[in-house]
Automatic annotation (TrEMBL):
InterPro entries: 4pyrrol_syn_uPrphyn_synt_sf, 4pyrrol_synth_uPrphyn_synth, UROS/Hem4. It catalyses: hydroxymethylbilane = uroporphyrinogen III + H2O. Catalyzes cyclization of the linear tetrapyrrole, hydroxymethylbilane, to the macrocyclic uroporphyrinogen III. Residues 15-227 form the Tetrapyrrole biosynthesis uroporphyrinogen III synthase domain. GO terms for molecular function: uroporphyrinogen-III synthase activity. It comes from Nitratireductor aquimarinus. This is Uroporphyrinogen-III synthase.
Length: 235
């Protein structure tokens, strides 16, 4: 049975582990980042459309945010984000973008500039979405819902999880997680256990964060969604 290391934060890590177990893999859950709420507040301002960049932006948002945005058209970056937004009572009209670049294009295609875009996002992020929206003449307003913090598992914790058998595959969902994994691999005891693993990444940028040696052999999903990543793992 192939052993697959899951590095994403909880609760997504356990959700992925359950999917892997159903597929016949042995999941090893080792979150390398965690998300924490920022207790964001939202004020009365014009809102034409809402953009949501991660399920964490829904998971950590207070009810006051949902109340303020009720009935507004929501563009979610992907299906999992869209499902989370629907469960929170938001009106999701599009959840097929896959990444921030495509998300900005879909909003621009649907709304004439200038339009007021409320963006529910994390504090640690790239500025692609807001930059592209502004370049298209729109007016994004960022509501930072959560922060992403690094986790540094001890050698003892890694040993307890992995044991003496090598890891076959590693799943990586973010550049932040990849940076943390690269640091982990620099520790000799951990690096040896991951030396023969195949690395599966949601994007090339994530693979690049692992460092040039690992990035050369990393496998990249053809679309930044977990379903495509797990499909790649099966092939």
């Amino acid at each position: 049975m192939r052993r697959v290391l899951v590095t994403r934060p909880e609760p997504g890590a356990s959700e992925t582990a359950a999917r892997l177990a159903e597929m016949g893999f042995e999941p090893l859950v080792l979150p390398l980042t965690e998300t924490v709420p920022l207790h964001a507040a939202i004020h009365a301002e014009a809102v034409d459309v809402v953009a949501v960049t991660s399920p964490n932006a829904i998971r950590h948002a207070p009810q006051s945010v949902f109340d303020a945005l009720k009935g507004k058209p929501v563009y979610a970056v992907g299906r999992r984000t869209g499902d989370a937004a629907r469960a929170a009572g938001l009106h999701v009209v599009d959840d097929e973008a896959g990444d921030a670049e495509r998300l900005s294009r879909r909003i621009d295609a649907a709304f004439a500039a200038p339009c007021h875009v409320t963006v529910l996002c994390g504090q640690v992020r790239r500025d692609v979405l807001e930059t592209r929206l502004m370049e298209a003449g729109h007016r994004p307003r960022l509501i930072e819902i959560y922060d992403t913090l690094p986790l540094e598992p001890s050698d003892a914790a890694v040993q307890s999880l992995i044991g003496d058998r090598p890891v076959d595959d590693v799943l990586l969902y973010s550049a932040n997680g990849a940076v943390q994994l690269a640091r982990l691999m620099a520790r000799s005891g951990v690096g040896k256990k991951l030396a023969a693993a195949t690395y599966y990444c949601l994007s090339e940028r994530i693979a690049e964060a692992l460092g040039p040696d690992v990035a050369k052999t990393a496998r990249i999903a053809d679309f930044p969604a977990e379903d495509r990543l797990l499909l790649l793992l099966k092939t």
